[in-house]
Amino acid sequence: MVPLVPARPEFPGFEVDPSRVTLGERIGSGAFGLAYRATLTTDEESEDVVVKTVKDNASEEDKLSFLQEIRAVVDLGVQKNLLGLIGCCTVVRDHLYLITEFMPYGDLKGFLRKCQVSHIGVEGISDGPRDDIYNFEVMQMYQVGRQIARGMDHIARSRYIHGDLAARNVLVGEKLTVKISDFGLAEDIYSRGYRRQDHLQKVPWKWMAPERLQGGEAYTAQSDVWSFGIVLYEISTLGGDPYPDVAIAHLQERLQTGFRMSKPEGCPAGMYDLMLQCWRWQPAERPSFRTLELDLDKQLAFYGPEYATPTPCT
User: Fold this and answer.
1) What pTM does this model have?
2) Is residue 5 part of a domain?
3) Key word Repeat present in the record (predicted)?
4) Three-point CA angle 95, 158, 200, nearest 5°
């Protein structure tokens, strides 16, 4: 029997009275959860936030999984390329909330596709978005990739795996700041060093490393590195879908025989080389996120020393 969600605060330092939260427009929906733009009111002011919660028909097991996601966000702490935790509500059973900062440009997948429209607009085919942030060129590809690598390095150093790294789970803010979100599949691997795939969990097949496609196999942070290579593909194609001509049923076999996606049009050779490194069959042969961050930094420096910003480990 699944234990009931506890009635006491799970995270006392972050607990927020749900009466201070006003839900607004629904901005996302998943298998078990919903996301809303919301307003959080304190004694002195109100701020725009995003609230993630479970659906009305969520089971006790779903609610416990949601609490585990909150735990992951709390454990990972503050890092500038992870979505910032503002608070949570865990006491009132009908108001299980994960409250995070609001990112005005939404998820990276949708953002990149708006950039694609903007590029078409330059050619006179479409008006496209007018905001300069949608002028997304090679330099911006590297800037975004480097930030994601930096955030993932923090996750890996914290002995966590993300488990669902994809452009749809990265959010975009002002000045092209990006932050990794959606830790629903994240897990602390300190005790074992690896995690086993849950067969009941919905999984993003085309973002998964081969060791995860082989049902039940153990996987590690190096499995997230494979997914990062897919994210670089999404970035360089302005939101393109991976393996557009490969059926999911054939994907594992094709990868095992050496198939890899070809270099996207307009993608720098250096970035494509990083993708291929991330897609090495053996997890131990893939680079670490720290190595990827430093490599992206070096490539970005090609555009000028002002873009090379070596950062201390966090």
Assistant:
1) 0.87
2) no
3) no
4) 55
